[in-house]
Amino acid sequence: MNGPSRTNVRRRTASRFAVFGNRRLGYALVLPQLLIVFVFFLWPAAQAVLWSFRLEEPFGGGSVFVGFANFSRLFRSPEYLRSVGVTIVFAASTIALSMISALVLALFADQIRHGSRLIRSALIWPYAISAPAVALTFTFIFNPFIGLAGRLNAISPGLWDPLLNGAHAMTMVVLAFSWQNVAVNFIFFLAGLQEIPESTLEAAAIDGAGVWRRTWHIVLPLLAPTTFLLLVLNVAGSFTQSFGIIDVMTQGGPGGATRTLVYQVYADGFIGLDLSGSAAQSLVLMIVVVGLTLIQFRFADSRVHYGGAR
Amino acid sequence: MKRVLGVLILVVCALVPLYSAAESEGVPVPSEAPATTSPIEVELWGIGGGVGRALSTFVDAFNESQDEFTILYVDKGAYRDVLQAGIAAFRAGTHPVIMQVLAEGASDMLLSGALYPAHDLMADMNVAMDWDDYLDPIASFFATQDGRYLAFPFNHSTNVMFVNMSKLRAAGVNEVPATWEDVESALIAMVANGEERPFAYRPWGWNDLAQFSAVHGIPIATNGNGFRGLDTELVFNETVHVRHLEDLKRWIDEGLAELRDDYFATATDFSSGGPAIWLASSASHARLAEVARAEGGFEFVTAPIPVYDGYERHNSLAGGGGMFILQGHDDAEYLGAARFFDFLRQVDQQTTWSTVTGYVPVTQSAYDNMIGTGFYTGEMIVGREVAVESLLAREMDEYSRGFRLGSYLQIEAIWQEEVVHILSGEKSAQEAMDSAVRRGNELLDRYAVLHSGKELP
After folding, report:
1. CATH of residue B312
2. pTM summary value
3. Subunit contact A273:B91, Cβ cutoff 8 A
4. Minimum Cα–Cα distance from A63: chain B residue
5. What's the domain range around B436?
6. Pairing of strands B69-75, B40-46
7. Residue B357 to residue B53: CA distance in whole angstroms
8. pLDDT per residue over B242-259, tens digit each?
9. Predicted complex: ipTM over 0.85
10. Facing B423 at nearest CB: one of A164, A272, A274
11. Does residue B433 share a domain with residue B422?
12. CA–CA gap between residue A107 and residue A73 (Å, rounded)
């Protein structure tokens, strides 16, 4: 999907993969991977399905079957519906911000002739920093009393107030999350750009196309597979990975303004000890993310041009 | 085939060191611990920080006092981390013998089925215990309604008001405010005298909801704050609590109070640029006293938290953590735990604990001893007596003995979220509290369904 054409992959198959005569050995070698998938994904997911139809005692003493009560509780709750809205705003803003800025950075980094390795490495670093560390750093920057952003309040008190103003708090977590995700998007975009044959661009230049036209009509369409892959990853990521940033920076506040679906799963499950409600929420979240991914493949995949043989 | 063998050998080579490392961690080395005389280990999961450091000195003292048992204290972070880790471990069967849980979260423990009641523990282990020695307000969260202890009281404090009296005097206020009306007029006087926002505030359920309701003798919930049954509903949207939140919002709008994100660090600038009035845990006294001495010269007063005019003052609540015993261990370990708690309740241990940490003594005998030895007249100590006096202000009644509400910590989180809506101006105090009560009642309903057929102890 990323870069090499389909025919390429097919041609390489024979040489790249070993063919085992012994079936059992093959299974044995796959087993550890399957075990990991089972223990860390399938088993908990099955457990979540089970719990979401029951009320489960935190300490595991017993449980009561409640049918769809956990789900109807969710969809009746105005706070849960608000979390859906918060998640959509968070996802749309972080995806737009981190993908566009990564693309711009990659377009420029691709042009650098001297010291490009250094600059590229520097742009990749943020991805190696853990979310809580990023969040802590941004918390200092955005602190209305002692932080850099606090200087806004010197101009006019209350200009920057993430402790009470939901929009300010949302801006803060979106910036922190995007900042971290720019890195991984950047790597992919840069790799995608380097796959674009120099000759195509040179031909266009000879035909008189300027930088803008070349970018718009050649580079961006050829980047489509990369962009699509990143979109799928970013949508899934922004729906499911906001926890680290939000837990450190706002804990879902103020007044629930940054409580995304995944943070609510945590808050209800671990602080509220409502394992069943939390399981129902994770199930809904999982269905939403899987659904979104399928929709993207269905509608976007057909429009993405994978290049063909070169 | 050769290649496959090679891979297998590589894999085995990679795994062997891992395996042996795991083994050397898990199994004690024989030379260090001869099997016959090695003490029995009793694991205790508690909170970290200052409390944890103080706790570990007591653990060390106990471990040195005898050689049958070793209490193994594990720092699990904050209260909620201890509880989360404890629940996960209990489900997996790797839980500790003793777990430190916040008093407000006690209700969730009582019906959990995971508890080995403290009272039964001491009886089963034949360790004599004078249960009546524990101070009554501390019992309320941890004991059944007929006074049988389900957990051991441990680190407890109550809510008090710290006042920088010098700033009040400078503004012509010579009495320590006893009512919220007094507080407001003192704030107005100080602002007129040039002070900036002399009241520090942050929405804090323990302070604004639990303690406030207790000292006013007003309900948080029906059924005597949940003690009489599981079909309980919250009612804090119908009490003077709503007016209190309105006042706080108005104070912030009028420049009398300041919303402090760093509320719990307020102690460090209490004297200089900081607030003149700060409501906090009595355990903060030690730090404030140090700041006051370091800064020199200002008059630092500890007082009970205010009540509104027309309300009789009730006792405040004991907050903090208790020690819960979990089921599923050997009698040998339980005997160690029983001995440890017998050790902790001794007068000299309690006195040391209270001196070092600023928490209140939990037994009457330790309290009497501290009064008798003149502890509370010490230079850095004056003011600490207010905490116990506030706890014992009068006989507890229906609403000042605390509450027994399932999912209370989550109800508190909802409450806080709604208070933020008041402060940001999105909702009136009444609207916000109505919403908090509606959401909280859903949690109580769920709790009732989950535990239907059970009796609250």
Report:
1. 3.40.190.10
2. 0.83
3. no
4. B450
5. 159-316+395-450
6. parallel
7. 10
8. 999 999 999 999 999 988
9. no
10. A164
11. yes
12. 48
